[in-house]
């Protein structure tokens, strides 16, 4: 599975849910989005540690949810002042999704150049731990009123979270990690 195939399948789910639910996600405040991603990452970690799951949704679906909530976070950062109770047209949502994914992909390309696709040697557990670390960083940035002194901002952390989830899905599909 390629990076673009993971993105395409995640976007397909996102757009179908937008058609089902509208843009109800617009009412989520920043900390609520962090919590939604945290729930998914923590569930993956629990399954990894326990080796058993009782809910049918597989780990791949949780990683896709992390991708989509990461994109929501980035869209919300841009849409901040707009009325969250007004539904956005599906076409606008699809265009915003593509815009955010383009940026996320550009960051991935730059990092792959510098790091030489080191992510291909990482474990699924590491991806989850890094996602959880990034979420804790975002929570701290939120407590700091969205400001950092020397560190990357929330947007950079969300970009990394999305890319880690995409990488995990690629490796799952390639059967390199379980």
Feature tags:
mainly alpha, 178 residues, 6 helices
Can you tell me about this structure?
By secondary structure, the chain is mainly α. It is 71% helix and 0% strand. The chain contains six helices and no strands. α4 packs across α6 (154-173) and α5 packs antiparallel against α6 (154-173). The model has no long low-confidence stretch (mean pLDDT 95). This is DUF1599 domain-containing protein. Residues 17-77, 111-170 form the Nucleotide modification associated domain. Pfam families: DUF1599.
Distance between the termini: 15 Å
Query: Per DSSP, what share of the residues sits in E-state strands of 2 or more residues?
Result: under 5%
Low-pLDDT residue intervals, each spanning 5 or more residues? none
Silhouette: globular
Largest sheet: none
- Structural class based on helices, strands and sheet pairing: mainly alpha
> Quick check: average pLDDT?
95
Beta-strand segment tally: 0
Layout of strands and helices, then pairs:
Layout: H1 3-21, H2 30-50, H3 59-79, H4 90-115, H5 124-143, H6 154-173
